[in-house]
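Would you mind writing out the residues of a protein together with its fold in token form for me to study?
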Amino acid sequence: MRINTRTKRFAWLTLLCVTIMLITAPGYSKGKLEEVFSPEDNLSKALPECQVFSGTHFSAKRNYNYTFNASTKTDPKTGEVSFEFASPAYEIQAKLDKALRLKKVVYKAKNKNAINRQGHDQRVITFDPESASQITVRFLLEGNDVDEKQVGYDYFTLYLGVAHVTLQALLLNEIKDFNCDVIVPDKGWRFNVDFKLIKTADPLSVAPQYDYPDNFKERLKLNKEYFIYEANIKGAIGFFYKHKYYLVYKSEKPYDFVAYWGGDPKRVEFIFTDGKNQEPAKPRNLPRKRLLKLVSPLRRSLPSSGIILRTGFYNFLWLRPSDRFQLFYYFIKGVGGPFARTLPKFKLRDLCKTSSFS
């Protein structure tokens, strides 16, 4: 049977229209978070007041194999969330409001290859609460502005740089499968993403296409259940980009973050904790013998103001009244000497102290 030219054109036009409809569809196949929550909701109240953890950032493609330290602090009064991340490759300081909206993020790159690839060594992201619909992303190199972008940021939009904090809060608020827009930090791009919650004792089987490093396999052992948020990009980009991303959490509350990986298997990066999440240290009363042993070298030449400086005024106030009096006594009586060089290391750990970042 012979098909005339007009029929062929109609068939091709129909196919083109269907293709355009498929790739431009936003893909809202799951519940949209903006229909569940509002900016007035306090979603951060479910988070622990303090979380401190360390781990590894590994990428064979980019020659990354760094250890990192991170902490998340939630203010129980205001609901504000502070996140800090430090590694030899980069540092992040971020603040979120009680509804998990971004307030400010400062990213500083240290790795020369990453700086050359990105074209900047610092990003400063700020949210304009008056417009309530966009963030400004400034790209800087050696302190000079390189580029600036305004990106739509209506509620609820997830910023990928703090996704592990946001998803933990959502999990604690019993949110399983959902859809929202996601902003990618290094480019300022915005994608629509479906998130699916998976519970499994074999997280590596969820995405067997990746070449997992041995220490990553050891971290995600079998016979221990985990929650995994599987992120699948939708819309036009998702039509062509079929790779997914994975964020793993413990299956017991407060659902501590465990690992992240995903994307192109040739360029995959693995970020995973070492499982040694530290409990926040609380100020405590020191035993009198220990206190006197620490301050006894100061009787001869060192003012105990140095001790106050080392411990911090906050911790000083938490000592017993008698101990505070003892320190104050040596402060008044102490004389001379550059105490900074010889002062004993006397510092109460306060892993969740208020950050100076603002």
About this structure: The longest helix spans residues 5-24. The longest strand covers residues 189-200.
